[in-house]
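New to this. Help decode both lines:
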Amino acid sequence: MSHLFPIRVYFEDTDAGGVAYHASYLRWAERARTESLRDIGLPHSDMQRIHGCFLVVKRLAVEYARPARLDDLLVVRTGILRAGASVQLVQEVRRGEKGLAVLEVTLACVDAASLAPRRLPEPWLGALRARVIDGGSAR
């Protein structure tokens, strides 16, 4: 099951030519990940407040295919590939039928006080495992 997050390309996201900065894709993907958790009733703030931990990006790889431009309406599709000691996601930024970028993201859970790695608490682990996509693609 994939989560869809619409986003508009604003002036702040672009260079003087109206082409989205490469770092904008990282911000859009972060927002999409946050909203995907919120949509299943598991906001980051609850993880910190109740369990004293949070998710950090452990690894990120991006492949850019074509540029996003000022005022484009995009969709970030987030799919969970694996959930266990870490969470592996694939995120695709699309403009209509055209794929603009694919991000492969690994998240780790860390203790808020020590920043040491720790196990992902329930109900996050169970909820993420229940949403693992079939076939390893966000499509």
In short: The mean pLDDT is 94. The two ends are 9 Å apart (CA to CA). The longest strand covers residues 98-111.
